[in-house]
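Reference record
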Amino acid sequence: MTHRLLVTYGQPTDPAAFDAHYRDVHTGLAQAIPGLVRFSTGHAETMDGSPCPAYLVAELDFESAEAMGSGMSSEAGRAAGADVATFASGGATMVHFDVQDATP
């Protein structure tokens, strides 16, 4: 089973600076987290084109909740977590869950 950490970043005060830091610094920190098996990101948009409270969404997958906990508590995990405060001026919400496949 996959265990996912979902990070939703709010609208930053400077989107270009956010994107540059995320691409040039934060992505490398996240990729160094032990136990990470998949990492994907995307800029969020609403279905109806209205203003979106989310700017960027990141999915970090691990083999289990235990693997995620171990990875996030490692030196690399703590470094990635601490980095969020340096660029996420719109805030960040982090939730995690076991992924359930709902495909018929």
